[in-house]
Amino acid sequence: MTVRQLHASRVFGAALVLVLAGAATPEFAATPAFAAAPAGVAVAGAVALPVSAAAPGGVAVPASVAVQGGLLRAVEVEWAEQHWADTEWNDPTPVAFGADQPKYQCAEYVARALAAAGLVPGLRADDPQDSYFHYTAPSGTTYDLLLISDLPPYHTLYDYLMDSRLGSDVGDQPGRARPGDVVVTYAGPGGTRSHTGLVVTAQDGSAEPTVDAHNRARRHYEYHYYAPSHLVRIDPLALSGGFDSVPVASGVPAPGGPVPQDPIGPQV
Question: Taking a C-beta distance cutoff of 8 angstroms, is the pair 99, 217 a contact?
Fold first, then answer.
């Protein structure tokens, strides 16, 4: 089996487990992503999709897993909704809305939501913080998943999303946001990355997508509450293609013009 086939089998294996768990677990079945769908249809996020797809990497996939990543994104959202107010990664004591979480900041929160859905190979959502600080990907590159800000020579959470092909930076396009996608704010010095959060609801008419984030603790705040921002669309099945040996350029330049003041200060 090739490396890419191995990645594919792990991703689809995780999806199959989650399909079975979702069918048998009431709390998942009650979420919008697992709401009842017509016969013969799988639900991806809030979108019903036909149950048919070919697996990448030559790996056979049961029809019930052909949800185009929506199921795994739903797991991200379910986890994020349960942990947006946690004091620390190992302390679920809730803080008040808008309160500081100095020991559990934005990038770590998003990274743990991804890990909960099996999208950070080798990491679990409840692994120690140091495992995220020094995460070695299957490519051999070490990432600091506690970091979103540009801080050479560290490879950040954003770098992980690009290098793994899990994420695709499409610029400031809130209308394309799906639950489980990532928002990255460019309010750092010189318009650099400064903050991140997880999309939990899609755009609904004139209402913007909403986002959960850490430090400060926020749930269901509007996509443009922090600006300027980019949408990073998450495609769980793209992870099966393996990592790039060099960082992938998003093709979308950082927003130009004046750098606004981040209302909650610098983020890491």
Answer: yes
Return the ∠ at Cα 84 (arms to 79 and 85), rounded to 5°.
135
User: Tell me, what's the pLDDT at 68?
Assistant: 55
What pTM value is reported for the model?
Answer: 0.73
Place of tokens 């979103």: 148
Q: How far is the C-alpha of 210 from the C-alpha of 1, rounded, in Å?
A: 41
Q: CA gyration radius for the chain?
A: 18
> Is the bond preceding residue 10 a cis peptide, omega within 30 degrees?
no
The predicted model gives 88-104 an average pLDDT of: 97
* Residues in CB range of 179: below 8 A, 6 or more apart: 32, 33, 45, 46, 73, 74, 76, 77, 199, 200, 201, 202
